[in-house]
């Protein structure tokens, strides 16, 4: 039987160490909403999402209350809209109208984000993919809750450099369209290599075509819990350090698994996966960078950071895998800058640079995330940064992503405030040397040799 | 059957258990186990209860217990046992 110490330990994690379930994300297939008439597609999309997700927020709140665990976000991911709108949309503006429908239905069911304004173009772009991409600046400026993601490469296909070039321009344009809000549109836009079909986390969530009609995916969190556990083993060797992370990750993930199963039962929707991620927030004590410091670094970014992050990421997976029946999504440690107070501190102290962040992404789950850069950064430079990051994902057979915000009108030394979970960030300097000729070549980078496994 | 864990944390005082037990009895909630400690005047109690016979919804009981807690200066939480089981038992 459960004892008082165990109950107190769990409740301290929740009350003092920010243990929460970061998101319940309902994945909904929109494939059966396809029609050649745009108005019909809009109605089909609204009706299907509303029908499936109308009880999502209430169910999440009921579970929160009964188990006493906060579930911070309730969200929806949908089939990439480039596929759904392909038959009906004749212009980028048509795609923007679909984004507006997604925004309306997200507000109607009360979720805070809806992901899937997406295109999968890792090898080539259809005319619809290209139109959707071109509609992103308008779509994200006219909506509040829609998130967009584009898969630009994979280990199996290589990198679509035409799309990488285009996305550099689109990110700049999105920044311009939302300049009065510190280019906030770019915080809702992410590009990927090896994008997972079942990621519950925004901005990159979409419901892949390999998925069932409707599914529940859950993202766990808990950097504060890991940090607190590590405080008790200060000065101990790596074996004890790793065991402590593993055991803590197990406990955190078990909560995610419980919530996922419970939500799945109550909503009558199959359980998909638990995403084992350490997802920070700007709240004090909810930081992945603080864990790195607790492991023994003065600041995130100091020599040793990549090794510390590598072991952290690996132990989180080792502990988490046993705690959940199905693991998927991104699964690893997130290292966004603006969403993690410890990372912000590290940038402000001069300890953490864009290049070090890039190195860190080789060993953890996401990529260059929520990084504010000067608004006058060239589109080709952004494309170059994207290409570098995607190459890491392609060669290492892992997911990598870029969510970078060229803040129009701001430069190094300025700060940017996105608010809420998106946090705030100092503008980081970008390497000023040109990659124009590289980006302007066009075409694709072939798949790496180790992708040919057949 | 599903069990509910009620935890009470706060400054020690007269009649904490009495007040809570009265409420539980009035609502037909059976207490199956109680453990408590007091360290440095700090009261920490856990009850394992069976709520299968009560007619009130879980949310109402949780809110009313929290309200009683506020009145007597302690924090009362009501959680289903599964969260603790899943975290601490394989």
Please sum up the structure shown.
With 454 residues, chain A is an alpha/beta fold. Chain A is 44% helix and 17% strand.
Structural descriptors:
heterodimer, A: 454 residues, alpha/beta, Anaerobic Ribonucleotide-triphosphate Reductase Large Chain, 2 domains, eleven-stranded mixed β-sheet, two-stranded antiparallel ribbon, 13 strands, B: 90 residues, alpha+beta, Alpha-Beta Plaits, 3 helices, 37% helix, globular
Task: Kindly identify the CATH topology of chain B.
Answer: Alpha-Beta Plaits
Radius of gyration of chain A: 21 Å
Largest sheet of chain B: 4 strands, antiparallel
Say which CATH homologous superfamily of chain B is assigned: ACT domain
Please give the order of strands in the largest beta sheet of chain B.
2-3-1-4
Task: Explain what you see.
- The complex is a heterodimer of chains A (454) and B (90).
- With 454 residues, chain A is of the alpha/beta class.
- In chain A, helix 6 (127-142) links the parallel strand 3 (113-120) and strand 4.
- Chain A has 15 helices and 13 strands.
- In chain A, 44% of the residues lie in helices and 17% in strands.
- The longest helix of chain A has 30 residues, at 238-267.
- By secondary structure, chain B is α+β, with helices and mostly antiparallel strands.
- Chain B has a single domain (3-72), classed as ACT domain (Alpha-Beta Plaits), CATH 3.30.70.260.
- Chain B is 37% helix and 39% strand.
- Chain B has a four-stranded antiparallel β-sheet with strand order 2-3-1-4, sandwiched between helices.
- In chain B, strand 2 and strand 3 form a beta hairpin.
- The mean pLDDT of chain B is 92.
- The A-B interface holds A 1-4, 6-11, 62, 65-69, 251, 254-255, 257-258, 262 and B 5, 7, 9, 33, 35-37, 44-46, 48, 58-59, 62, 77-88.
């Amino acid at each position: 039987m459960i004892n008082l110490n165990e109950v107190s330990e769990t409740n301290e994690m929740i009350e003092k160490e920010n243990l929460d379930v970061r998101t319940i994300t309902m994945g909904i297939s929109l494939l059966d909403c396809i029609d050649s008439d745009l108005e019909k597609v809009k109605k089909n999309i609204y009706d299907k999402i509303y029908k499936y997700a109308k009880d999502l927020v209430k169910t999440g709140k009921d579970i929160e209350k009964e188990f006493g665990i906060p579930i911070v976000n309730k969200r929806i991911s949908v089939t990439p809209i480039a596929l759904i709108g392909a038959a009906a949309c004749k212009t980028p503006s048509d795609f923007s109208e679909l984004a507006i429908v997604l925004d309306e239905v997200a507000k109607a069911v009360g979720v805070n984000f809806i992901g899937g304004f997406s295109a999968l173009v890792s090898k080539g772009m259809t005319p619809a993919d290209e139109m959707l991409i071109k509609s992103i600046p308008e779509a994200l400026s006219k909506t509040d809750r829609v998130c967009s993601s584009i898969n630009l490469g994979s280990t199996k296909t290589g990198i679509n450099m035409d799309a990488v070039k285009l996305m550099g321009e689109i990110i700049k344009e999105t920044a311009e369209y939302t300049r009065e809000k510190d280019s906030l549109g770019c915080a809702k836009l992410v590009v990927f290599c090896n994008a997972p079909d079942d990621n519950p986390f925004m901005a990159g969530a979409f419901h892949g075509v390999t998925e069932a009609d409707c599914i529940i995916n859950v993202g766990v969190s808990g950097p504060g819990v890991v940090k607190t556990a590590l405080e008790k083993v200060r000065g101990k060797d790596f074996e004890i350090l790793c065991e402590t992370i593993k055991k803590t990750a197990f406990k955190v993930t078990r909560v995610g698994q419980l919530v996922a199963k419970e939500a799945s039962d109550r909503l009558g929707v199959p359980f998909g996966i638990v995403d084992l991620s350490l997802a920070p927030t700007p709240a004090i004590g909810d930081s992945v960078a603080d864990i790195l410091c607790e492991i023994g670094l003065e600041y995130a970014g100091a020599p040793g950071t990549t090794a510390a992050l590598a072991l952290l990421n690996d132990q989180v997976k080792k502990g988490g895998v046993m705690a959940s029946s199905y693991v998927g999504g991104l699964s690893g440690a997130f290292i966004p800058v603006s969403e993690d107070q410890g990372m912000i501190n590290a940038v402000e102290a001069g300890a953490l640079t864009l290049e070090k962040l890039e190195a860190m992404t080789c060993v953890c789950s996401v990529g260059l995330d929520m990084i504010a850069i000067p608004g006058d950064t060239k589109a080709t430079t952004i494309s170059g940064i994207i290409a570098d990051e995607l190459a890491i994902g392609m060669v290492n057979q892992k997911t990598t992503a870029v969510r970078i915000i060229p803040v129009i009108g701001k430069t190094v030394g300025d700060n940017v405030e996105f608010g809420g979970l998106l946090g705030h960030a100092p503008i980081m300097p970008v390497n000023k040397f040109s990659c124009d000729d590289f980006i302007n070549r066009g075409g694709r980078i072939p798949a790496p040799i180790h992708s040919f496994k057949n | 059957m599903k069990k509910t864990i009620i935890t009470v944390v706060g400054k020690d005082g007269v009649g904490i258990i009495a007040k809570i037990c009265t409420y539980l009895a009035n609502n037909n909630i059976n207490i199956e186990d109680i453990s408590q400690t007091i360290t440095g005047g700090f009261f920490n109690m856990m009850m394992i209860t069976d709520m299968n016979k009560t007619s009130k919804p879980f949310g109402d009981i949780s809110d009313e217990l929290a309200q009683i807690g506020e009145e007597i200066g302690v924090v009362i939480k009501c959680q289903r046992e599964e969260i603790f089981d899943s975290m601490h038992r394989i």
